C-alpha cells in the first residue's frame, strides 16, 4: 500500500512538473473571435511562428463573437492563472481588458497586443503592439470613395463594434478624412457587432431609406460581406460605390464582379506570425519595438492579381 501511495505521489509530482513546464513554454493567443476567416488567418501565422520557436507550444482561443467581451476577459485571466510564458491578445474592448492585463503584468507575463489598442490606463501592462495603422487605413478607404463619388452627396458607414480600438481608429480616420476633404453627408455609423447577417439587414434598410446614396463603407470583414450581399440582393451592386475592409474569398469575389470598388486588406497572417515571434523574444528578454505597423494594401480589380495584393489576401 505504501508503495502504491508513493508511486501515485511520484506520478502526481511528475504530472505537476510537466504541467508547469508546459505552461512555462506556452504562448496563449487570444483573439476577438474564432468565427472569422480573418482571425483564422491570424492563427495560421501564429502556428508558423510557434513551429519555428524551439520548444514553445501555442494555444489559440477566442469567443464565439466579438461582442462576447466577458468571455475574452475570462480567457486572458485563465491564461494568467495557468502561468503561461506569454500572451498575444487582440482586445475586443479597450477598457474591459485592462484589469486582466494588469494581472498578467503583476504575474510578470509579457503581453503582445495585435490589431487593436488598449485604453491609456493599460499601456504600462503590455510590452509591444502590432497592428494596422487604422487611422491611415480609414483615410485610405475615404480617399478611394471620394475619388469615385466626388465631394458632394450622401454616403453611409457600416461599422462593427462601437468602442473597439481598431474601430475607433478606422472609422474615425475615415469620417475625419471625409469631413476634411469633401462635403459628403455621412449616414450612420451603424454597428453590426461583427455579425454578417446583422450587417446585411442594416445595409438593406439603409439602402431602402436612402435611395440617393452614392457610396458606402463596410469597416471589417463580416460587415463588408453583409454589405456586399445586401447590395447584390437589392440590385444596387455596381450602382453605389462600395469600399470594404479585409480580404477573404467572399470580398475578393465582390471586387472581381464589381460589387465592391476596393477592399483595404490588413496583414492578418503577419499579425499572428509576428505576434508569437515577439512574445517569444520577450520571454527570452530580447529587445523589441513597442509599436510595429503590420501594413495595409488597397486592393482593386486592377491590382488583385499582383504579388502585393496576393501576399495579404486569404
UniProtKB/TrEMBL annotation:
PANTHER family per record: D-ALLOSE-BINDING PERIPLASMIC PROTEIN-RELATED
Keywords on record: Signal
Organism: Azospirillum lipoferum
Main location class: other
Signal peptide: 1-22
Residue intervals of the Periplasmic binding protein domain: 27-286
Any single Pfam family the record assigns to this protein: Peripla_BP_4
Presence of the UniProt keyword Signal in the record: yes
Family: Belongs to the bacterial solute-binding protein 2 family.
One GO cellular component, as annotated: cell envelope
MF (Gene Ontology): carbohydrate binding
Compartment(s) where it occurs, according to its Swiss-Prot or TrEMBL record: Cell envelope
Domain of life: Bacteria
Stated name of the protein: ABC transporter substrate-binding protein
